[in-house]
Amino acid sequence: MSFSIERYKEESKKVDTAGVAWDEVTSHSLSNGDLFCLHYMMDIENHVPLYLSHLLVTRACMDPILTAFLACWNYEELWHGENLGRFLNLYGIEFDTQERIANVRANLGVQNSVSLMSTMAGSWLLKDFSSVYLSIGAINELSTLTGYAALVRRSGHPVLKDLLSRIIKDERRHYAFYFNSAKEWLTDNKKAQRVDRWMLDRVWVPVGQGVKTQEEVDALALHLFDDAQGEADLALIDEKIGKLPGLAGIKLLSKSLAAARERVRHNPRWAWRLIDNEEWAVKAPRKSPIGQLTTRRQPSDIAVTTRPESEVA
Ligand SMILES: [Fe+2]
Ligand SMILES: [Fe+2]
């Protein structure tokens, strides 16, 4: 698996959707579980700029190769979110994308700022922070593309298959960058390997957790991976990540599925109730209209405070 940053910079572009049969989106049905996962995935793709804001304050961003990658990566992820939103809108689920993104961000609350500060401090205190960040990047990209492939399989929706297959190609390139960069950092670097292993075993969470609740993370995992094929998919992620120096035998995704199943064993309604009750809408935060969230002025504000130019003496 090779990766050239120069080639990536030249070739990076928004996902090409020419020829996607958008007019056939409603010709095939999706289950509640499929719709739940699509909303989750869209929200996490749309969360990338905020995730990026955490990285841009860290020591890792002293590296110009990394910042070049992030500049292109962020743009590509934007179009993943846009296209998943378009797909859902065409399927008949009505929401305003900008409003939904603003609400997701507002619901993060103070925990988002705490996480930003601790990532920043950790990166400057810990010389080998980059190895942790790069390994997590590799795990996240590989989990994402595995999740998309599982959704293609689960849903059997041909238009979704076409769209997600195109997005998966981008995610593969992202994975290649993170994996190769992590490998470079960890090779012959025992201290970085120890830090990486220690942090992954203790602070790693599945992609999306933090923006989404534990129960939402479990609902996605169970819908996509709660069978023999799903278990094999997750074991393969662990196996691939275990090839990084110092991470042999790591079992992050398999353990995560086992923990989700354990929570269902204690409460059979856990996670599945979110899917059954179609709980994929994002609630607007109390007392925070969209204008206050984004500080963007609304057309109605401008109409009240601005006189037409012809009236100005
Ligand atoms: Fe993506
Ligand atoms: Fe990605």
Any overview of this molecule?
This protein has 313 residues and is an all-alpha fold. Helix content is 68%, strand content 0%. Helix 4 (64-91) runs antiparallel to helix 8 and helix 11 runs antiparallel to helix 12. It has helices at 5-11, 32-46, 48-55, 64-91, 97-106, 110-125, 129-155, 158-186, 190-203, 214-225, 228-241, 252-266, 272-276, 290-294, 299-305. One fe (ii) ion is lined by residues 77, 141, 144, 171, 174.
Major β-sheet, in short?
A: none
Q: In what range is the share of β-strand residues?
A: under 5%
Shape: globular
- SSE pattern, N- to C-terminal: HHHHHHHHHHHHHHH
For the termini, the CA-CA separation is 67 Å
- Average pLDDT value? 92
Bound molecules: fe (ii) ion
* Record field, number of beta strands: 0
Continuous helix count: 15
Show unreliable segments: none
* Proportion of helical residues: 55-70%
Q: What is the rounded Rg?
A: 21 Å
Output the structural class: mainly alpha
Task: Give a quick precis of the structure.
By secondary structure, the protein is mostly helical. The protein has helices at residues 5-11, 32-46, 48-55, 64-91, 97-106, 110-125, 129-155, 158-186, 190-203, 214-225, 228-241, 252-266, 272-276, 290-294, 299-305.
Question: What keywords describe this structure?
Answer:
15 helices; 313 residues; mainly alpha; binds fe (ii) ion; globular; 0% strand
Question: Would you spell out the secondary-structure blueprint of this structure?
Answer:
Layout: H1 5-11, H2 32-46, H3 48-55, H4 64-91, H5 97-106, H6 110-125, H7 129-155, H8 158-186, H9 190-203, H10 214-225, H11 228-241, H12 252-266, H13 272-276, H14 290-294, H15 299-305
Helix pairs in contact: 2-4, 2-10, 4-8, 7-8, 7-9, 7-11, 11-12
Bound molecules: fe (ii) ion (2 copies).
